[in-house]
UniProtKB/TrEMBL annotation:
Binding site for ATP: 223-229
The encoding gene: guaA
Reported function: Catalyzes the synthesis of GMP from XMP.
Active-site positions on this chain: 82, 169, 171
Naturally occurring in which organism (per UniProt): Eiseniibacteriota bacterium
This protein's UniProt keywords: ATP-binding, Glutamine amidotransferase, GMP biosynthesis, Ligase, Nucleotide-binding, Purine biosynthesis
Protein name: GMP synthase [glutamine-hydrolyzing]
HAMAP family noted in UniProt: GMP_synthase (MF_00344)
Pfam families found in the cross-reference section: GATase, GMP_synt_C, NAD_synthase
InterPro entries for this protein: Class_I_gatase-like (IPR029062), GATASE (IPR017926), GMP_synth_C (IPR001674), GMP_synth_GATase (IPR004739), GMP_synthase (IPR022955), GMPS_ATP_PPase_dom (IPR025777), NAD/GMP_synthase (IPR022310), Rossmann-like_a/b/a_fold (IPR014729)
């Protein structure tokens, strides 16, 4: 069990997951629960402290998701951020109204009095605000701690209880003293014990897998991606020879991907790995299919079929290891006012029931960055651990329209050049996901003295934290020029390269 637990009550802010991550980075384990969770449920988890998140809602509206007032009677150290501040102020006798002008961006805070929350923070400091409502009056027992030029109550504390409220967001990078404020809360006010780390998590996860699996056997689908590689390596450490891994090569992988998994996990680490060459099967079923959703469906069905066939050839298996991550778990837990719905893509959906397999999901409490850290703690190479997310249907959703082998070959070459140049320019790790897309149009060009009429490749690179929203990465022009020139010159069949500068929304990350 974690030594100290912080529960984050989620009211739907885009920053809730960031709060959880910041707290974990400070060495304290944290989890997200729905903001409206009953106080009894919260108490049963025995948290060391509570943090109330922001929200797109207005506390004074009837439909607003308010916390159970019973949480204040738990006497737990409590930090209310933005909406968490307003909702608390309102429930404890204060007054909240629409701000005269909404404030988005950094504001200068001026402290009016000392507070343990601001220990080591200058009297005037800049912090990130994003709010349309504000607290106009505090209830009895509360004291104002800070103000800004437009917000009279920008921070407050309770005189008797360990309750602290702030209008700004300490979790975002634009709040320079944010880390200090969170650390003051966790250690100075809530007196929590730190020390939660990936190494500790690793030891604990191995023990838990052993307990769950007992003498049983585990099956794990490998995709070449980070999550499944980490799950497999972790399970291997826990149950050794009783783990079977299956990689279905559907022919829609990037260049060298299947070989790399075979080398890194199979050969170097000795995982029992079967690579199934199902390329022909998938291509046959995809022939002539243009509709993206149909393509996804066909690939999903065929995947399960191949996986199941392979699994049956193995010995007895009772468990299926899956790389479910924390954002997928929160999605189902926080329905309603929780974080926005994330697409969850499980390649082997339906299989556990059909094969009567019990699930092993050792990454259920981790964020993507933490999975990478765990991968490093397990000794996996950077090239595997830092790999960008890759969709289950693979290159099939990056070739617009029908998929065939010659086009897959063109796309693989173009993509490999792009990724190679990104790595060389040290931009690979600075962008969240980057890839090439093959468009179904021909454009006129000139190669040598001859007119050409060839395909167009689009380059995509996005910054994101979870794939739900994304902005296009401002890659340097010189880098783009090199990539475009190399692709148009080296990849036969392509004479034009364009860069996609659309954010999500309104576009999505993948083109299909
Ligand atoms: P979109 O295109 O929806 O993508 O903005 C968000 C993230 O999800 C990945 N993605 C998928 N992953 N199966 C997957 O396993 C899919 O069908 C799928 N579609 C999109 C995408 O690469 C991005 O990281």
């Amino acid at each position: 069990m974690p030594r100290s637990l912080v529960l984050i009550l989620d009211f739907g802010s885009q920053y809730t997951q960031l709060i959880a991550r910041r707290v974990r980075e400070l060495g304290v384990y944290s989890e997200i629960v729905p903001g409206t969770a009953p106080a009894g449920e919260i108490a049963a988890r025995k948290p060391g402290a509570l943090i109330l998140s922001g929200s797109p809602a207005s506390g004074y509206r009837a439909e607003a998701p308010l916390p159970d007032p019973g949480i204040y009677a738990l006497e737990k150290p409590l930090l209310g951020i933005c909406y968490g501040f307003q909702a608390t102020a309102q429930l404890m006798g204060g007054q909240v109204e629409k701000a005269e002008r909404a404030e988005y961006g950094t504001a200068t805070f001026v402290r009016d009095r000392a507070s343990p929350l601001f220990e080591g923070v200058p009297k005037r400091f800049r912090a990130w605000m994003s709010h349309g409502d504000e607290v106009r009056a505090l209830g009895p027992g509360w004291t104002r701690v800070a103000h800004t030029s437009s917000c009279a109550f920008a921070a407050a504390m309770h005189e008797r209880h360990p309750f602290h409220l702030i209008q700004f967001h300490p979790e975002v990078a634009h709040t320079p003293h944010g880390r200090r404020v969170l650390s003051n809360f966790l250690f100075g006010i809530a007196h929590l014990r730190g020390g939660w780390s990936m190494r500790g998590f690793l030891r604990q996860a191995v023990t838990e897998i052993r307990t769950r699996v007992g003498e049983g056997h585990v099956l794990c689908g490998l995709s070449g991606g980070v999550d499944s590689s980490v799950v497999a390596t972790l399970c291997h450490r826990a149950v050794g020879e009783r783990l079977w891994c299956v990689l279905v090569d559907h022919g829609l992988l990037r260049r060298g991907e299947a070989e790399e998994v075979r080398r890194e996990l199979g050969e170097k680490r000795g995982l029992k790995l079967t690579v199934v060459d199902a390329r022909a099967r998938f291509l046959e079923r995809l022939a002539g299919v243009e509709d993206p959703e149909r393509k996804r469906k066909i690939i999903g069905e065929e995947f399960i079929r191949v996986f199941e066939e392979e699994a049956k050839k193995l010995g007895p298996v009772e468990f299926l290891a899956q790389g479910t991550l924390y954002p997928d778990v929160i999605e189902s837990a926080s329905a309603g006012w929780g974080a926005q719905v994330i697409k969850s893509h499980h390649n082997v959906g339906g299989l556990p029931e059909r094969m009567h397999l019990k699930l092993v999901e050792p990454l259920r409490s981790l964020f993507k960055d933490e999975v990478r850290e765990l991968g490093r703690a397990l000794g996996l190479p950077d090239a595997l651990v830092d790999r960008h997310p890759f969709p289950g249907p693979g290159l099939a959703v990056r070739i617009l329209g029908a998929v065939n082998e010659p086009d897959l070959d063109v796309l693989r070459r173009a993509d490999a050049i792009y990724i190679e140049e990104l790595r060389r320019a040290k931009w690979y790790a600075r962008t969240w996901q980057a890839f090439a897309v093959l468009l179904p149009v021909h454009s006129v060009g000139v190669k040598g003295d001859e007119r050409s009429y060839e395909r167009v490749v689009a380059l995509r690179a996005v910054d994101s934290s979870d794939g739900m929203t994304a902005d296009w990465t401002r890659l340097p022009h010189g880098l783009l020029a090199r990539v475009a020139s190399r692709i148009a010159n080296e990849v036969r069949g392509v004479n034009r390269v364009v860069f996609d500068c659309t954010s999500k929304p309104p576009a999505t990350i993948e083109w299909e």
